[in-house]
Amino acid sequence: MLVHSRTRFWIETALAVLAAVLMTGQMQRANWRAAARVVGPADESRVLVVASSGQVPLAYYLHATDFRPGKGRARIRAREIDTVGKDYAADAPGHGFRLVTVERVAGSFWVRRYRSPAPTLVTAREVGGNRILDEPSLDLANRAPRSAFAARPRPTAGRGIPRA
Q1: Cα(164)–Cα(88) distance, rounded to whole angstroms?
Q2: pLDDT given at position 25
């Protein structure tokens, strides 16, 4: 009888913990894949400002690179800045970028898309340091895919003479 009551105690405890995990949002794993789906693949260069806990998964899903001062190229010419944060509050990035969409994702994230009418030089310092999201954030960048450069004319060598 004593063994049966101990077993029952542990089963009830395990069920209570399971229920708490399923019912408490803080104990749920963030669905970064859903956030990446909403942001979508990059057609052109863009900057991503993401909650710090999402830097690694979003870099993986979106094929993005670190975009911080002192880390590789710390500036990019982009027409889009996307933010992915858990808090609703966010500040506009400025420099002609206007908010075009706000979307709630998987009950966990707010995804905002800001666009500029023309490609604009954005530095890592301008978007870093919690300047946009009101929570700890890190920045990523997608550089324009190689195919975007294929249609551009080749640079000239010397005095306007095209390279062979």
Answers
A1: 54
A2: 55
